[in-house]
Amino acid sequence: MSSSTSLLLKLAEEISRNTSVIVEHLNRNDLPQPSFDADGPSHPIPEANEELSAARHALIEASKALHTLAVGPSETTRLFYFKDIYFVGAMQVLCHFNVPQQVPVHGEISMGELSTKTGLDKGLLARFLRMAAVNYYFTEPRPEFIAHTAWSKTLATDPKMRACVWFRHSEMMPSVAKLVEAVETYTSSPEAAEPRNTAFRLAFGDTFFDYKEKHQDHMVKFGQFVDAFASGIEADTAESFARAYTWETLPAGSLVVDVGGGIGHISTAVAQKHPLLRFQVQDFGDLAEESSLLRQSAGVSDRVQFCPHNFFDPQPETSREAAVYFLRNIMHNWPDMDCRRILKPIVEVMSPDSRLVVCDIVLPEPNTTPKTQEAQVRALDIVMLSMFNAKERSYEDWQDLFTSVDSRLRITAVIGRPKLGTESLIEARLMQ
């Protein structure tokens, strides 16, 4: 038996074994089975169960590997990226013309009627729908009639899912198309590390944040995209951070400073779980009113305060020597030179007992995690490059960044899987 045949059989057996684990759990707990039907569950395999989560990831990994082997290197290179690009293009058109919302959630609609409802030429509509259907979005149950699958139904019922399609085709793809030009233009430049020198700026003529400031409709959709990305079954929620970190080890009355904390979702969640702690949420002043509403509705206004603050500025006196300085998804938006500008004002007010807790991705060492999981964070790394001239960081990158700000700032703990999903909590302290 050749090694390639053995690998095919090994992968097939792994797929069968992990499928059995999942199906048995679903049957035992009277849960719905995964299905392409419109009524199929959107999250069919519960991630909360550790054994089931492991089986799901193993199934995805083995299925991807088996599929890749079965297709082979030449066909993968020749056809697959080609098909993926035009599938994305088809989805772009369908979402732009509001096609998902015009297809009934239950039942079917003729292509002629759908053409009338959307204003999209019937012939073009059919071509785009059939491209989507071979990727399990929509189905043609009989000639010239269209119905939803569970996949396309998410686009019909959830504007955040439609925002995912919009952001990827409207902003990610044009930026990716400029990556070669960006690398050629900026790599040898004395200003190579400047956050404005991005593929995004080459595509749109502005930095990401300046462009959003001028196009508020884009900012709204981007916010929906971020919300959708944060609602996945592996997403890290405010509640998961409240559970994962050792907040209970902080003395009663300790102050936690949530740097760049938006309206305070995380501080609010942690405050609800740990009633002896105080919080200061720092962000731009125009978020104060929304933050106040959140804190009042959660009943934590007496312990969670909002402080207008730009994280490049010196820390206010009210936040000196806090127990924890917490930053979530801040650093990966900035190159090292600007991360140092963010960290320096914090380090200057830290006491020997203070902790810096950064919530961000820690890139795995190659070949230490399943490829399907690693692929997600590698993709995010390229997103950060193309949008912000920034990056995701490995453990060594984080340590190097910290010590470049202060040689005493050392990583003391990293909390990741299984307590969290894609992100990790990186704790650092000033070591004497």
TrEMBL record:
All copies of domain O-methyltransferase C-terminal, residue ranges: 196-404
GO terms, molecular function: O-methyltransferase activity
Keywords: Methyltransferase, S-adenosyl-L-methionine, Transferase
InterPro entries: COMT-like, COMT_C, SAM-dependent_MTases_sf, WH-like_DNA-bd_sf, WH_DNA-bd_sf
GO biological process, one term: methylation
Signal peptide: none
Name assigned to this protein: O-methyltransferase-domain-containing protein
Source organism of the structure: Chaetomium fimeti
